[in-house]
Automatic annotation (TrEMBL):
Keywords: Calcium, Manganese, Metal-binding. Residues 242-253 have a biased composition (Basic and acidic residues). Ca(2+) binds at D56, D60, N198, S200, G202. Gene3D superfamilies: 1.20.1260.10. This is Mn-containing catalase. Residues 198-215 have a biased composition (Polar residues). InterPro entries: Ferritin-like, Ferritin-like_SF, Mn_catalase, Mn_catalase_dom. Mn(2+) binds at E35, E65, H68, E134, H167. One of its GO terms (molecular function) is metal ion binding. Transmembrane segments: none annotated.
Length: 266
């Protein structure tokens, strides 16, 4: 059930119309890292989530993202101002022809699409994606903050930026509770999963914790050790030790205590 409250989550104030900045702010209304994308992504993920605690987290943040969409939309309406006042040579045609409110497009006028939404059904994968989405949104807000001198707009952007940080923290903490589950559990643990392949060779090759230590080995020239011409032949290990076995149920990946409903016996 949804219920709309007419008050904003945070007061939105704009000092004066600024159609140029409104075009930039559209990125967070209908863009691929914007508020609608986040709301739809988290809500879609929640519908397939069988972990009640993570489901609650996803729905709380999804609802807040819709509140942020509302805030950005209200700010856009004030920044656009009277359409008659937009200069005739204004570069963004999709803004100059509005009048009915902001369109679900990004700053370049490209329409919002469901392709922005990432939902896999694996909680570890989805929460990792969500944590990254919050950082991308934060980055856009940081850049938007540098593009205006409007004190009211800056205040709103700082609030939204701070909420992205909060959501990122929540998703990262939730990920900690899911270690060893879902896709984080089903690693083959093979020799190749513990190797770093030096595929971009030459001056500038670097070493660090991403390619050494923690049981990782560094392959300087992997093609010389493992490569060769393509050929027909039998897979030397058609069934590795960590292959998914018959009877595998995806429902148990996120919540081992989940019992899949069984059809009634006749």
């Amino acid at each position: 059930m949804f219920k709309h409250v007419k008050d904003m989550e945070y007061t939105v104030h704009v000092d004066q119309p600024d159609p140029r900045y409104a075009v930039l702010l559209l990125e967070q209304f209908g863009g691929g890292n914007g508020e609608l994308k986040a709301a739809m992504q988290y809500f879609s993920q929640s519908l397939g989530c069988n972990d009640p605690k993570i489901r609650d987290l996803l729905q709380d943040i999804a609802a807040e993202e819709l509140s942020h969409l509302e805030m950005v939309g209200e700010a856009l309406g004030m920044l656009i101002g009277p359409v008659d006042n937009i200069p005739k040579d204004f570069a963004a045609n999709h803004m100059a022809l509005l009048g009915g409110g902001p369109l679900l497009v990004n700053s370049a006028g490209v329409p919002w699409t469901a392709n922005f939404v990432n939902s896999t059904g694996d909680l570890y994968t989805d929460l990792s994606s969500n944590a990254g989405a919050e950082l991308r949104a934060k980055l856009i807000y940081e850049r938007l903050l540098q593009q205006t001198d409007d004190a009211g707009v800056k205040d709103m952007i700082r609030f939204l930026l701070s909420r992205e940080e909060s959501h990122n923290f929540s998703f990262m903490q939730a990920l900690e509770t899911l270690k060893g589950s879902g896709v984080n559990k089903d690693f083959r643990d093979s020799d190749f999963s513990k190797k770093y392949m030096n595929m971009s060779t030459g001056q500038g090759d670097s070493r660090g914790p991403w390619n050494q230590g923690n049981g990782f080995s560094y392959e300087e020239n992997p093609n010389e050790k493992y490569g060769g011409p393509a050929q027909y032949g039998k897979d030397p290990q058609p069934n590795g030790p960590r292959e998914v076995k018959p009877g595998y149920m995806d429902h148990t990946r996120n919540n081992p205590q989940y019992n899949q409903p069984q059809p009634p016996k006749h």
